[in-house]
Write a structure and sequence with these properties.
two-stranded antiparallel ribbon, binds zinc ion
Length: 405
């Protein structure tokens, strides 16, 4: 079993997949090399349209945080299994898995993704997969035990500091400077730091190359669905991460681009607490009902994992993923998910998006029952892998089933 692959081995695997399925899969290198000179690959899956009909576009990313070992491997194997099944005209197998470390052992039964879903996904969608956004971070995390929990990229230490690295999932340009967005009281509760030596949440001072790589996937073509796979929490998160959600027409002014809510503005500012005096506006009107749709799609992914758990009660409870807004976990600025979602209602975006963009973060795995948190052991990795495959395939099948845009 190859897991956990090195950064170089992920690239080898990605190239092999593209070479093995040239009619439906192409590999491209994203524009910006990393600080250590690595290139980041993107796989595009989709049978070229013969009718010129529009397709929904899905972007999947993983490996934004170096120490999160399972998602890049699982995204590689997802594409491999999907295309292997497509080529054979068969179902896509989700193998059975038995957790032999639990007493007595826990079995998760085999499942099948129907052949019609496999075909629909490959033929009706344009799917972009970047399994490893941050290869420098992964290489650091895997190089020596002392750096196993390395999360950031390897951006050079700023002048006056000895500490390298930026948290890429705090570096996206939304909602701008968090010390302007939040009021002073909220700042200590927010998962972000301007200290380069903060080992987790240093926001950086400029857009990092890995972040620009992800952002470039959203232009010029529209994106309809975006899923960023992280670990761990066994949660399926949707926006907002910055603050609580509210969808009240009378409170549309509670939004990130309204300066009256900024620090120093004419209000008491943004509190970063769901249900507090300020909550970020999340549109939920007809016809798209974006807040309801995010909750529904999150539950579609959750239920796909649960439906495959089988009758054993421990298998069911250990397959449970909460569906919630990200700020319920902790408030955080600068995430890929929030940045992408903000494009739905960003007044500075010209032209505005023609169709809605649905965005999610999957926090796969757990620290319980030997799952290993950021570093699932080889014996337990197949459980995490199947959860990612089941959830993502459910979203892809959903998108493929809809009438095209
Ligand atoms: Zn993460």
């Amino acid at each position: 079993m190859p897991y956990p692959r090195s950064s170089a081995a992920i690239e080898v695997a990605v190239e092999a997949i593209a070479n093995g399925h040239p009619t439906v899969c192409t590999r491209s290198l994203l524009t910006n090399p990393t600080h250590q000179g690595r290139r980041v690959s993107c796989l595009k899956i989709g049978k070229p349209s013969t009718t010129g009909a529009g397709r929904y576009v899905v972007v999947l990313t993983g490996g934004v945080h170096g120490r999160e070992w399972a998602p890049p491997d699982a995204l590689v194997s997802l594409v491999d299994r999907l295309l292997t099944a497509y080529q054979a005209g068969t179902t896509m197998p989700i193998p059975a898995f038995t957790d032999l470390d639990s007493v007595p052992p826990v079995t998760y039964p085999a499942a099948q993704i129907p052949a019609r879903d496999v075909r629909g996904i490959v033929e009706e969608l344009d799917l972009y997969v970047v399994p490893l956004v941050n290869p420098d971070g992964r290489a650091t995390s895997q190089a020596r035990e002392a750096d196993k929990d390395w999360r950031k990229n390897r951006s050079a230490a700023p002048t006056g500091s000895a500490c390298e690295g930026v948290d890429l999932n705090r570096n996206f340009p939304f909602p701008g400077d968090y010390q302007v967005y939040y009021n002073v009281a909220a700042e200590s509760d927010v998962s972000a730091s301007k200290d380069p030596c903060d080992i987790d949440n240093y926001v950086g001072t400029a857009l990092e190359p890995e972040v620009r790589n992800v952002m470039e996937l959203f232009t010029p073509s529209p994106v309809d669905y975006f899923v960023d796979v992280h670990s761990w929490a066994r949660k399926i998160l949707h926006p907002w991460a910055v603050d609580g959600n509210q969808a009240e027409p009378a409170r549309t002014g509670e939004n990130w681009h309204n300066p009256v809510w900024n620090r120093g503005g004419t209000t008491k500012g943004r509190d970063g607490a769901p249900g507090g005096p300020y909550d970020e506006y999340f549109p939920n009107q007809d016809p798209h009902r974006l807040l309801d749709a995010h909750d529904l799609l999150g539950k579609v992914m959750r239920d796909a994992i649960l439906d495959a758990a089988g009758p054993e009660v421990r298998a069911f409870s250990r397959s449970w993923y909460d569906v919630e807004q990200a700020a319920d976990l902790y408030p955080a600025p600068g995430t890929s998910m929030d940045w992408a979602f903000s494009r739905n209602i960003d007044p500075s975006l010209t032209p505005p998006l023609a169709r809605p963009l649905y965005t999610f973060t999957i926090e796969c795995g757990s620290e319980e029952n030997g799952e290993g948190g950021w570093h699932p052991p080889v014996e337990l990795y197949p459980k995490i892998e199947r959860e990612i495959h089941l959830a993502v395939m459910a979203l892809l099948a959903w998108a493929a089933m809809l009438p095209g845009p």
